[in-house]
Protein: Iron-containing alcohol dehydrogenase
Organism: Oceanispirochaeta crateris
Amino acid sequence: MKNFNYYIPTRIFFGPGSIKELSQTKLPGNKALIVISAGQSMKKFGYLQRVQDLLKTNNCESVVFDKILPNPVKSHVMEGADLARRENCDFIVGLGGGSSIDTAKSIALMVKNPGDYWDYIHGGSGQGKLYKEAVLPVVAITTTAGTGTEADPWTVITNEEKQEKIGFGGDDFFPVFSIVDPELMLSIPPELTAFQGFDAFFHAAEGYIAKIATPISDAYALQSMALIAEYLPKAIKNGKDLEARTQIALANTLSGMVESTSSCTSEHSMEHALSAYHPSLPHGAGLIMLSESYFRHFSSVCPERLIKMAKTMGKEGETADDFISALLKLQNDCGVAGLKMSDYGIQKSEIHKIAENAHHTMGGLYDMDRQTLSHQDTVDIITAAFK
Amino acid sequence: MKNFNYYIPTRIFFGPGSIKELSQTKLPGNKALIVISAGQSMKKFGYLQRVQDLLKTNNCESVVFDKILPNPVKSHVMEGADLARRENCDFIVGLGGGSSIDTAKSIALMVKNPGDYWDYIHGGSGQGKLYKEAVLPVVAITTTAGTGTEADPWTVITNEEKQEKIGFGGDDFFPVFSIVDPELMLSIPPELTAFQGFDAFFHAAEGYIAKIATPISDAYALQSMALIAEYLPKAIKNGKDLEARTQIALANTLSGMVESTSSCTSEHSMEHALSAYHPSLPHGAGLIMLSESYFRHFSSVCPERLIKMAKTMGKEGETADDFISALLKLQNDCGVAGLKMSDYGIQKSEIHKIAENAHHTMGGLYDMDRQTLSHQDTVDIITAAFK
């Protein structure tokens, strides 16, 4: 066994109705910038109003920043930080999916630190500077079950000018506390439920085959995949099934804990490159498209790991192929087996460029693979995945 | 699934050689009170000197308090707090087994809070007062694999005048960081290795059948029991087997995380009562003696949980009895199948008194059982365990 450090200081309030903790728990400040998406759901379903009311009950003022896109962009990080500064906000609330919570984390960095967000980014055209001023405290309230960002110290932002989608983070970026209330997830449409659920699944699966996996991250990952295999089809079939939503919410939080204790691998680099060029491609959909050929590549590298993943998904699990079958069956049961890159405007002629972008912008995740992939390996995986 | 809160803010440095983190990591103060046992091992094996040297390298002074008994007592909490106050120590290092680390936590409470330690204790003759002053930061360096206290916010101290052995703790008692270095565990004699390993095992097993268990605590518990079933006999057979020691150290840390996310059950109340009257009885030995009749009692209450425990221990796991067989086999493989209460001076005539003490001093853990035990149930379990 390898040495490891374990650190997940975030307090997680989990379960139906746990949103009410917002009115009872000690808050990390007196005025919150609430970061939400540009879509209507946070307002339409009353979640924003509820959060504002609960904060008010807890003697906390708030300001809303409501511009976040599904693939969140750097310009909104800068704009949100400006607003927080002008309004004297002393902590940031990310309310919504991974895009809002990740943007909240990135805004938290930029409120007190000078310059441009990309000054601090490692990879791509990022300057890799060290930040010197404090990162504001972040509270995460997740209304989707996909990124696990409520339980990890990472944020992924796209530099829209450079077409670079890059992760960033560290100890200072763990939310002070997170609220995972499945009642806020009952309104997610089936297709998004599937994409987000698979994102969580691949955080767990990649974290399980990553070379820095530990027995603790393994425990989270196997539990997460078991729950997704059992409950994701149910949550897609009936979005009001609170038990299924709750189990998937838990699987997602567990997959965030995998992110905190292990790592994603190069599958994520490839997907980030795909959606950096094609922002309309949902992250989870990109991962689903890549997954069969990606995990097939690793089936000879760490077959024993794929067998264990097959078992946790309820398969017999005698060969690595059993995992591929379980994965394809789950995609089928979730109605996402027929996704095609070409439907999102991706062209076969782009594959070399996409593979280069994956290495260039998120090469770090390639170091997490148990066997290092070459540029040609990446091209081959994406080519095999292309439909 | 029930709602739950998850919070384990302790940073854990895990693995052979991780003790060196003490010279590199940011410390929570400038002068440490190092709490160690009254035995010779911390000095004889050079661990104390190493810790002092590493702290010094990290510009930190230290003072040693070396009186802790295997069942740590209240008078040493008070004496250690006095010493820390006189010496202006601003954090406490617990170096050793659970007794030293637990005492470190309790001392951390009493350095700035007035009165007697038992003023703050709930249960028994404790006054249940709220403390108002800060608890000093604690660093845990574990040299045994038994209590998991390095990853939980709990401490167990005996009031030697009242013959009450009671747990206490909460969020303020999580170590700031813990070092789990299996190289410091190579010198533990076989019998202690067994007793401590079983203590860890029962933290996991009780936490798994506790009614507040969550899927996260389940993941820790099953992983912990799997590791103990596989590696404890090896660590006992060859104490220098670093891989076995490492796996058992991890199992122990995982069982501490079970303590932080679920709870012990009344088996622990019963054992605390046994060793409150018979301080020479090692805690792990007491648990081993109680375990067969205790888990037999619960085999009809939550058979599906016992079956899963049997499976994680490598058994087929078709009935709850398979867990009892796996438990007895593990005791046999570890050379502790023949332990007798009578060998430690416990008499059958004491059982009523012991059962009363268990309810009186640690009744709270009875609330964690899936089926509430009566006084007579407790008497029956201890009677069935008596040899």
In short: The two ends of chain A are 40 Å apart (CA to CA).
